[in-house]
Amino acid sequence: MPGVIVPRKAIAELSRLLEDADENVEIAVSAAKIRFGFGPGRLTSKLIDGSFPDYERVIPKDNKNVLHVETKDFAQAVDRVSTVSSDRTRSVKLALEADNLRLTVNNPEAGSALEELSVDYGGDAIEIGFNARYLLDVAQQVDGETATFRLADPSSPTVIVDEEDTRALYVLMPLRV
Are 32 and 73 members of one domain? Predict the structure, then answer.
């Protein structure tokens, strides 16, 4: 089957239609359309022109600083400190050093917040900022109790891996804080 790009709306509709279905789905692809057949139903959609970007190019391969953090504790700490952050940036600064993670937010209008977590980290001391919403989104997707952050420096992408499902990989770009 050729590589194709299916519109998000078509996938959402197909997912809704197949929610209770137990039968196989037949897929037919032409140059401009895709058709899904299941039981008595059919769904046809236009394909998106072009080729999917080479996403593997943006995944860092050699981030040497490795952080292991309990997902639930991390998400709760990010949620607490982000309540003080400004709505515009929602930035949270993570300061890492020998088995300690310090999350801080400074907002001239609303004050500041600080949370500290005991973590498994033996890399170089580093301070890096992220959008709190993105951190929380990733934490909600992680199935395991522990997430692994692979960091390089404050301006390079960070890779986050779910320890329960190593096929799940998240790449976050840092913010300047």
Answer: no
